Amino acid sequence: MEIRGKIAVITGGSRGIGRKTAITLAQKGAHIAIIYHSSDEKAKSIIQEVSKNYGVKAKAYKCDVSNFNKVKETVSQIEKDFGTIDILVNNAGILIKEPFIETKEETWDRTIAVNLKGVFNMCRFVIPVMLKHNSGKIVNVSSIAGRNGGTVGVPYAASKAGVVGITNALASEFTPKGIYVNAVAPGPVDTDLFKGLSPEQRKKLEALSPNGRFAKPEEIAHAIVCLIENDYISGETVNINAGRYMN
């Protein structure tokens, strides 16, 4: 896909991987709609940055991606504001780390609601927009935890494994209709998701990586954009973890 002039929607777009993805797409000439949950100032900042630096249209939408009806309203508004949607990056996610035998029901429910149902909600309303022109690219952000369990808790791992399943099912159904669906599965990334780690916990996680460090958000964003540009990859989950997990 030629990105210039396309309309890209990025959830969790105010910070971390989402922010870097928005910037990278804007650099290539895409118009940007970011969906965010609570970071008003960060959302305003990224919109101003891409508009000023790259001359693209950009707008932020406050929305809880786990809310089916709110997502429906938000996607409808984006279509009205931009005319269509060509690219969707499902990046919004949360991590609540608790030992399994201490995991609260609300932790499970909220994690699944945001990380898994949020992907369903966004795809449910964006895909019909893409079908109007039989073209689209969707990239879902999973995790190494969704492939090998990880060390950050059962709810998170289960939700991210579900993202891989959604990706495969959507690719099977919609690639023949011109909509390509892929996922990325990063190892630990230097974002707010891991800001609560103690120095000892961070050091332990870094030691698990063959190159001894967390990924940078821009390294994940680059892979996301590569999947968007490629017109022959669909139904794949790309592992991005410096060789820690390769199956």
Order of strands across the main sheet: 3-2-1-4-5-6-7
Task: Quote the distance from N terminus to C terminus.
Answer: 28 Å
Specify the structural class. alpha/beta
What's the CATH C level? Alpha Beta
Order of helices and strands: EHEHEHEHEHHEHHE
Radius of gyration: 17 Å
The pLDDT mean sits at 93
Q: Treating each run of at least 4 consecutive H or I residues as one helix, how many helices?
A: 8
Q: What proportion of the residues form beta strands (DSSP E)? A: 15-25%
- Please bin the fraction of helical residues: 40-55%
CATH fold assignment = Rossmann fold
Let me know the CATH homologous superfamily: NAD(P)-binding Rossmann-like Domain
Low-confidence stretches: none
Number of domains: 1
Number of strands: 7
Shape: globular
Oligomeric status of the shown chains? single chain
Mind describing the biggest β-sheet?
A: 7 strands, parallel
Q: Provide the CATH architecture.
A: 3-Layer(aba) Sandwich
Q: Could you describe the 3D structure shown?
A:
The protein has 8 helices and 7 strands. It has a 7-stranded parallel beta sheet with strand order 3-2-1-4-5-6-7, sandwiched between helices. It has one domain: NAD(P)-binding Rossmann-like Domain (Rossmann fold). The model has no long low-confidence stretch (mean pLDDT 93). With 247 residues, it is of the alpha/beta class. Helix 2 (40-54) links the parallel strand 2 (31-36) and strand 3 (58-62). Helices cover 47% and strands 15% of the residues.
Keywords:
seven-stranded parallel sheet, 7 strands, globular, 247 residues, Rossmann fold, 47% helix, 8 helices, alpha/beta
